UniProtKB/TrEMBL annotation:
This is tRNA threonylcarbamoyladenosine biosynthesis protein TsaE. GO terms for cellular component: cytoplasm. GO terms for molecular function: ATP binding; kinase activity; metal ion binding. Belongs to the TsaE family.
Length: 167
């Protein structure tokens, strides 16, 4: 029998985001909770708010340069309180080609790594990370946040204290 990888979603939460400002604010709040080496996987349809959330994260980290989607450059690095590595896999279809880019070097490093369209890397993702799926909702967006691993359960607990019950 080949090797078996089991992934457990231990905790999750939903947050309703009424507009782009609320999405950006979620990113800012995460900046106060995440630590160097943390990985944030963002999934959702085009225009769902992945880059907007990353802009809020960057602002919360003290990044002063404009943050845009690295769709064509694939990886953009920003300097703030911690380095922010912003990766966008939208244009890449083949997970093996993604590995050829050396993306795993950004996982667990000295900065915070954000991967838009990170689901495309599955099953090559590290065993622990925070996933945020952004979905369109009638009154804005819904963020479904899942913690994979104890460090990210801590992030969820801290986030719950900030946003309160019911998101």
């Amino acid at each position: 029998m080949g090797s078996v990888i089991i992934r457990y979603w231990v905790r999750d939460m939903e947050i309703w985001l009424k507009d782009a400002g609320a999405t950006r604010k979620l990113g800012e709040e995460l900046a106060g909770i995440l630590n160097p080496g943390d990985i944030l996987i963002l999934n959702g349809e085009l225009g769902a708010g992945k880059t907007t959330l990353t802009q809020g994260l960057a602002q919360g980290l003290g990044v002063t340069t404009p943050v845009t989607s690295p769709t064509f450059t694939l990886i953009q690095e920003y300097r703030g309180r911690y380095p922010l590595y912003h990766i966008d896999l939208y244009r890449l279809e083949d997970p093996e080609a993604m590995l050829d880019l050396g993306l795993e070097e950004y996982f667990g490093g000295e900065g915070i790594t954000v991967v838009e369209w990170g689901g495309r890397l599955d099953p090559y993702l590290p065993p622990a990370f925070l996933e945020i799926k952004l979905e369109y909702a009638p009154e804005g967006r819904r963020a479904i946040i899942k913690a994979r691993g104890p460090a990210y359960e801590r992030v969820l607990e801290e986030l719950k204290k900030i946003v309160g019950p019911g998101g």
